[in-house]
Design brief:
With 165 residues, the chain is mostly helical. It has four helices and no strands. It has helices at residues 19-45, 57-87, 93-118, 131-160. Helix 1 (19-45) packs antiparallel against helix 2 (57-87), helix 1 (19-45) crosses helix 3 and helix 3 (93-118) packs antiparallel against helix 4 (131-160). The termini are far apart. The model has no long low-confidence stretch (mean pLDDT 90).
Length: 165
């Protein structure tokens, strides 16, 4: 007789944590969450801009829909990858938190520098001096990135067995 199949309720065998994958997966989730916040708050609720404002309102609305679709796909993919890490017991929580904040800040800084200033796809607001909005937007992005870097350094120290401070 063959060896009995492992029951569906038995836990998966312990695996080695995967710090880089944990950080990357949660960075994807973080970027998707920040894209959702941008899309929902600034595009839909406040109506300050569309993702692409250099054409007609219909094109702007289409661009918002495409951004929303991409953000949802990234969020779903990120959570499937996260669930896989959890199932295999390979999640490194400290690295995952670092990745989440790096993803949040990375998306926001990319949007603030590349989309707003370099490509000029849209501005945060129109009809006002955007300087304070740019400072607040990019400053918040840098703050999120700094939190991510601090968490990543602590996680790396902890993984090497050093002090976590």
């Amino acid at each position: 007789m063959t060896e009995p199949a492992r029951s569906r309720t038995s836990p998966a065998p312990a695996a080695r944590p995967e710090p880089r994958r944990s950080a990357a997966v949660c960075a994807l989730i973080g970027a998707a969450v920040m894209a959702a916040v941008d899309e929902i708050v600034f595009h839909q609720v406040l109506g300050w801009h569309h993702f692409y404002d250099r054409s007609t309102p219909s094109v702007g609305l289409l661009s918002d829909g495409l951004l929303h679709s991409a953000e949802l796909l990234a969020l779903v993919a990120g959570f499937f990858l996260y669930a896989d890490l959890r199932r295999r017991r390979a999640l490194a929580p400290a690295h995952a938190w670092a990745g989440l904040f790096l993803g949040l800040g990375g998306f926001q800084l990319f949007d603030g520098i590349v989309d707003h200033k370099l490509l000029r796809l849209h501005q945060i607001r129109y009809g006002v001096d955007v300087t304070p909005y740019d400072w607040a937007w990019n400053g918040a992005a840098v703050l999120l990135l700094l939190v991510g870097v601090v968490l990543a350094v602590r996680a790396a120290r902890r993984a090497r067995g050093g002090p976590a401070s």
